Amino acid sequence: MSGARGAALDVTALDVDLDRAPVVRDVSCSVAPGGWLALIGPNGAGKSTLLRAVAGLVRRRGGTVLVDGGDLGRLRPRERARLIGYVPQTPVLPPDLTVREYVLLGRTPHLGYLANPGERDRSAVERTLDALDLARFADRRLSALSGGERQRATVARALAQEPRLLLLDEPTSALDLGHQQHVLDLVEGLRADHGLTVVTTLHDLTTAGQYADRLVLLDKGRVEAAGAPGEVITQELVARVYGARVAVTRGPDGRPVVTPLHGG
Length: 264
What we know:
By secondary structure, the chain is of the alpha/beta class. 32% of the residues lie in helices and 27% in strands. The protein is globular and about 55 Å long.
């Protein structure tokens, strides 16, 4: 799967240790420009660590990460921030900032040193607030938001960067069903209309299969399976990797739908 010609992201033989313990081992994967890759797998499989390594936030023990053909390790932090938007699973938010001020921080990589945000920056922020149903909270402090509202604010900040590669670590974990669909549909629209490349970690297998073009199933830090959703989300693989009893059927669009089965 690695080495794809013209890949927006190409990861080859990636190894990551945390506290001297192996977490990711010999992982290779790629996603084409404008594609959507979802990392799936049980808790502790290495999904979030892999995403953080792609973002340049953890040190690699081995392997390479190429973004638009360039070695991520050779980019300065400011250059990396113009290319990659990253939304962690549990972000730390400055409680006294308003939503608008926080989302405006996403424009920082595009500003010159000591430069103030301009009209283009403020317009990008307002568009993003509207798109994520946050305009009505724009002047509210982050500390006053619900968990789901804070999660949408972190996605908004990343989108305000106008990145070419968007990395989302469990972007819907704190959202109700309606806002889950809203956020993922927005990301899908940006991908389709503007060529945004997306890599997400997702716990929900049906959601991953509905939105992603390709899946990488991780288990114990290694790639267990990779390919189109219908190739990776199978009853046999889910049983082996997750130890779960499920039925896998096909939805109206032919994509896999996973239903847990009662043990009785």
